[in-house]
Amino acid sequence: MHYKGYEATIEFDEHANVFNGEVVNLRDVITFQGSSAAQLKQAFAESVKDYLAFCAERGEEPEKPFSGQFVVQAEPDLHKAISSAAQRAGVSLNKWVVTTLERSVR
């Protein structure tokens, strides 16, 4: 599920007969639950709004969903190998890494 740039995963608790959700694309913890899809969507939106309001009350910036940038450190031989692979593919090193990561998670 997605709401205002926040992404959540959902699990079903068959013993309690309820869906539990958690925002996954930030370090702060935002959870919610509902017994139907409509309740789950509403609870998700309300939890994000509550989180944003809580941060505003405290005068803190809410954590934003991931920026899309991260630093990767690799051994020099691996760095050389992926740089060569990117050159052979005719793309930038960044594009090659992003494409490879996309294939891995899909």
TrEMBL record:
InterPro entries: Arc_rbn_hlx_hlx, Ribbon_hlx_hlx, TTHA1013/TTHA0281-like, Uncharacterised_HicB. SUPFAM superfamilies: Ribbon-helix-helix, TTHA1013/TTHA0281-like. It comes from the Bacteria. One of its GO terms (biological process) is regulation of DNA-templated transcription. It holds the Pfam family HicB. This is Toxin-antitoxin system HicB family antitoxin.
